[in-house]
Amino acid sequence: EKSQMDKDEL
Amino acid sequence: MNVFRLIGDLSHLLAILILLWKIWKTRSCSGISGKSQFLFALVFTTRYLDLFTNFISPYNTFMKIVYIVCSCVTVYFIYVKFKATYDSNHDTFRVEFLVVPVGGLAFLVNHDFTPLEILWTFSIYLESVAILPQLFMISKTGEAETITSHYLFALGAYRALYIVNWVYRYYFEGFFDLIAIVAGCVQTILYCDFFYLYITKVLQGKKLSLPA
């Protein structure tokens, strides 16, 4: 699963 | 953060500011697709819902706010302030043919079946096709103002640079997000035709005109 932290890209 | 993503973000920011500047200075949104700008505003509002719950860095938060504000101001300029100059006769792409399939796909193919993740996925898929109304409008009018072609070049370059960023992150960080990569490739491929025209015409000082 992708954690929310992975969403470091705009 | 790596240099490719930073240049990509700055190229994206440049594109958004070029468009705002063009509309404000010429007090006209002729040749601009309001539908594409509406889709971009939808992309940012559905992608950055975690703006206040998931702090990454000051840069990240700042850019998200700038993108959301600028895209909404652009839509306001087109549909309210400079409405008289909006060329609705040529901006006729049926956006429901984009939003509905993209919405369905976001439910079927995602990383996590949660509201925030599905909206993020919807936003990624939508961004890959959001420029279609604008490209369609240019194909209908057969030409684009030079400032508009610079806007499109910067916008296309941003996601092309993100692809380089994903290659870099795969090899150096072992990170990759297939949904973002596939959508990013589709998005960049849609610009190829325009990139060719931009490089062969606009950079030669000619006006961008599509073979009618």
Task: Please name the defining characteristics of this protein.
heterodimer; A: 10 residues; little secondary structure; elongated; B: 212 residues; mainly alpha; two-stranded antiparallel ribbon; 2 strands; transmembrane helix (chain B)
Molecular structure report:
The complex is a heterodimer of chains A (10) and B (212). Helices cover 0% and strands 0% of the residues of chain A. Chain A has 10 residues and is largely without helices or strands. Chain B is mostly helical and 212 residues long. Chain B has 8 helices and 2 strands; from the N terminus they run ααααααβααβ. Chain B has helices spanning 3-26, 34-47, 58-81, 96-108, 115-129, 132-141, 146-173, 178-200; strands at 143-144, 208-209. Chain B has a two-stranded antiparallel ribbon with strand order 1-2. In chain B, helix 1 packs parallel to helix 3, helix 1 (3-26) packs antiparallel against helix 7 (146-173) and helix 2 packs antiparallel against helix 5. The mean pLDDT of chain B is 96. The interface between A and B is medium-sized, with 9 and 22 residues.
Tell me the layout of helices and strands.
The complex is a heterodimer of chains A (10) and B (212).
Chain A: no helix or strand
Chain B: H1 3-26, H2 34-47, H3 58-81, H4 96-108, H5 115-129, H6 132-141, E1 143-144, H7 146-173, H8 178-200, E2 208-209
Antiparallel strand pairs in B: 1-2
Distance between the termini of chain A: 19 Å
Derived from helix and strand composition plus strand pairing, the structural class of chain B reads mainly alpha
Count of helical regions of chain B: 8
**Residues in helix, % of chain A:** under 10%
Oligomer state of the chains in this structure: heterodimer
Organism (chain B): Acanthaster planci
Transmembrane segments (chain B): 62-80, 92-110, 122-139, 151-172, 178-199
Membrane topology (chain B): Multi-pass membrane protein
Main location (chain B): endoplasmic reticulum
